[in-house]
Structures
1.
Amino acid sequence: MKRGVLGSTLVLLGGLLISVLPASTPLLRFAPLVALRDERAGRMLGLAVVVIGLGLCASAWLRLCREVAGATGPAARQALTRVCTAAVLWSLPLLVAPPLFSRDGWSYAAQGTMVEIGISPYDYGPWVLGGPIVEAVDPVWMYTRTPYGPLPLGLGALAAAHTRDPWLLVIAHRLIALVGLALLAWAVPRLAAWTRADVPLAGAIVLASPLMLANGVAGLHNDLLMIGLMAAALVVAVERSWLWGAALGGAAAAVKLPGGLVCLAIVLVALPAGAGLRARISRAVSVAGVSLGTVVALGLVVGVGVGWVRGLAVPVTFDTVLSPPTVLGNLLDWLVATLLPGPGWGRFGVDALRHLALLATAVILIGLGVRTPTGDRVAALRALAIAMVALVVLSPVVHPWYLLWPLPFAAALALPRGAWHALMAVAVVGGVAAPLDSTLYDAYVAVSLASLLIAAISAALLVTRRARARMERLEDVRHGGGERGAVGAGASFPGRPGKPAV
C-alpha cells in the first residue's frame, strides 16, 4: 500500500512541473517552482519523477494482484476490500492535482462555467469567457464546440455555481470522475462473478491499475464516468430491469457517445434464449428509445438540448498516432505522394481507411447483435467487450485514455493465458507511458529520455526473467485447484442476497 501512495504522491509533485497551470494560480508565486518550470532541465526532472512514481504504482499494483489472486469465499470479500482500499489510497494524492498528461480538465471547468451562465458549449468555445477560467485551456479547443454530452456539462455547471476558481472546479470534476470509479467498484465484481472469473483480481485490474490511475484519475477524463455508467447499466439490466438498464445506458451516452454501446448487451440479456431476428430488432428499438429519451431529457434539464451532435466530428479533425486507420492512412498517403507525385491526392488514404474502419465497426456491431446468443449474460458481456475493443482499434482517433473503454468488460471475463498477459501488459504500459501525451513545451529531449525510462521500467515489470516468474506464479494462483480463481458455483457474492452468482 505504502509504495503505491508514494508513487501517486510523486506523480502529483512531478506533475506540477510538467502540467500547464493557470497563470493566475497562487502556486506560481512560489519562486522555486517557477524556476524549475521555466527550465527544460526542471521539466525533465519533473517528467522523470512522474515516470518513477508511475513505476512505483505499477510495482505496487502487480504485488497487489499477486496477493489477492485466487481468493475464495470470505477471503474473496477481504481481498476485494483490500483492492478498494488500495484504489482509494492511491487516488487520494491525485485528487488535488491539476489535470495531468492532458489539458482536458481545464476545458471541462470552462465548459461547465459556460452552461452555468447560460452560454451553450455547443454553440461557442471557451474563448467567450476570458479571465482565469480559460488561462490553461488548450488553444486547440479554445474555439471549438464540445463533443461531450449534457451530463458532465450539467454536473460542471452545478460546481461552477459555487466557485469560479479553475483549480477547485478541476477538483470537482475529478470527484465526478471518481463517481465512475465507485460505480465500477460496485459493478465489476458482479460482472466477474457471472463468468466465474477471479473477482478480486478483476477488481484490481479495473480499479487500481496504472492505466486507471494515470488516465482515469490523474488524467481526469469523462471516459471514467462513462465506463462506470456502462458497467452499472449492464448489471442493473440483468439484476433489476432492462428499462432501468437502458436508462443508465442513455446516461452513459450522455457523457460520451460510445457509452451507448452498452445497449447492445442490454438488448441481448433482455431477450429470452433463442430469440430470432425480428425479436432482436424489436427489443433494440425499445432499448434505443429509452436510451435516446434519457439523453434528450438530460439535455433539456441541463438547458443545452441536443446541440452536442454538431460537435461529434470535432475530435476527428486531428490525427493521433494510436489510431491504426489513421497511421496506415498517412503511410498510404506518403507512399502515393512518393511513387505518384502530383497534386490532388491530399488525404485520400487517411479518409479512405477511416471510412473503411467505420464500416468494419458497423459490420462487427451488427454481427454481434445478430449472432450472439440471447438470454445469456456471459455472452452479452463478451459481446460488449469485443465491441469496445473493436471500437478502440478501428476508431479514427485514439487517445491513451480510450484504452479504459474495454477494461472493465475484458477484465470481468475468464480470459485465456495469452489474453490475460496482454491485458496486464496494457494496464502497465498504458499507465506508465501516459506522461508522453502531456504538454512539455517542445521538450523533445525530455520525451526521448522518458521513453527510454519507460522502456526500462516496463521491462523490469513485465519482460525480465524475474518478472515472468512473478506472472507465472500469479497465473498459477489464478487457476490453481481448478476452481480456485472463481467465486464458486452457487455463491451469492456479489449479487443480490440469496441469488446465485452464476
Note: The chain has one domain: 2-479.
2.
Amino acid sequence: MKHSLLSALAILFTSTSSAISEVGGSSMLNIGYWVEALQSEGLKTIYFPGTEEYVNRTESYYSASAQLRPSVIIQPTSTEEVSKIITTLIRSPCNWAIRSGGHTVWPGANNINNGVTIDLGLMSTTTYDADTSTAKIQAGSTWEKVYETLGLEGKTVPGGRTATVGVAGFLTGGGNTFYTARRGFGCDNVINFEVVLATGEVVNANANENQDLFKALKGGSSNFGIVTRFDMEAFDAPDLWGGLVIYPTSTTDQHIAAYVKWTDNIENYQDGSAITFWSYTPEEKKIRIQAAYQDTTGAVAPPAFDEFMAITGNETSTMRLDSHLNLARELNQPSGYRNVWFAITLKNEERFIKKGISMQEEFVENWKPLSPDGDFTCHAILQSIPTIFSKHSVEKGGNVLGLDRLTENAVMFQVQFIFKGEEKEDEARRRLVEYRETLKQYTVDLGGSVEWEYLNYADYTQDPLKTYGQENVAFLRQVAAKYDPEGIFQTRMPGGFKISKVS
C-alpha cells in the first residue's frame, strides 16, 4: 500500500471531497479504525477511493452495473488473512461484500457501497496433485487461469464455459459446464470446500467432515461462510471438437425443433454440449443465431449432432479441434457494459421456446428508440436441463439445486441484455421483468412451467433459492443456522441471494 491509513484518509478528506461524497464520508470515518486494526494484523493490500489501484479493481468487474463504490477494497493473500478480516469486521459497524471473479452482473451481488469489499483476486492459484488427481483451486481465480494451469498437466475440470467467469460464485451457484451431461454440475465435482466461518474458524467440508455444509455449498451460494479453496476431481483433457456456427434467423424453426430433439437425446449421448443463442449485436444491428457446439471426447460431428448439422445456410463456422481453454475463451463477452439478465425454465416443447424467441424480437425492436446508435446486445439463449444432469448429481452425493424433482427434460431460457447508460438501467430492468413474468405466465397457463431457476443467471428481482423446493429450503436454513447462528452472512454481508429472505 503506497500510503499509511492516516495519510490516505487525509488525502481523501482534504483533496478528494467528491470521492468522499460518493462513498460516504461518515462511512470512511467509521471504517478507519478497523482498517488500521487490519494493518496491524499484517494486511497490506488495502485500497482507498481515489487511488489508481482502487479504480483498476473497480473497473475490472465484468458488468458496469456491479462497479459500486465501497469505502475500501481489501485484498487478502491467504485463507488466514480472510479469517482476520472477518473477525475484525464483525466487531466493526461496517458491512461487507465478497468478490471472487467479479462476473455476477447485478449491483450488490459481489460489491457494496459504503462498506468493505473483500476482493479475493490475489488468491488465484491452482495446484494439481497428481497422486490424487485433484485440482486445488483458490477462490479468487477465473476459469481461464484454472484451465491454463491444468492444461500444462494435460488435465481439466468441469468449470465455466466462459473463461472470464469466477470460480467461487460459479461453483456455489451450481455451475453448468460442457461436461454436465456426463459428470453432473460443476459443484458435483467438488470433493472439498475450505471455508472461513463467521467466527473466523477455518473448516473443511467434504464427504467425511461437515457433510451437511458440503451439500449446502453445492448450490446454496454465500449463506454459510467464505469459501477460500475448492478441491475438484481433475481428469484427462483431450482436445474438444467445437466452435461457433452463425445462421440467419430464417432457420429459427429448424433450430428450435433440433434443440428439442437434442435435449431429449442427451441421456443417450452424454459427451456433447449445445447452446443456441438468438443474438442482437451492435456490429450486425440485427438478430442472428449463434450455435455453440462442443463434443468433449473430440469426436467430430458425432451422430447426436445430426439434427443441427442438417441445418443449411450457415454464414460462418469456427468448428475445429481445440482445447477446453480456447473454446471457453471463444464464449467471452465484452466487459464494461451495464447488464440485466434473467433465466427461467420451460418444458422441452417447441411452442414455449418459440414464444420466448418471439418476445426477444419484440423487446429488441422496442429498445431501439432508447439506443439510437444500436450499441447494445441482447441474447436469448437455450440450454438443456435434462433429467440426466440431476441423476449424476445424486450419484455423487447430491446437491441442493432440487433438480432431482424433475421427471421430464426441460430447457433453460436465459436473456442477457447488455447496454450502456446508467440512466437506462431501471427502465431496462422494468422491461425485462415484464418479459420474464409474461413468458412465465404463458408457460403456467399452458402447462409448460418448470419451477426451477438457475441462481447464477438470476436477476435480484428473482428468488432462485425458493425454486429449489421446500425440503431444500428448509435444509439450507438449518445449515445456515448451525454454521452461522448469529446470522452474520445474512445481515453483515447483504449481497447475493440470502436464505433468510426466501419467502
Note: The radius of gyration is 23 Å.
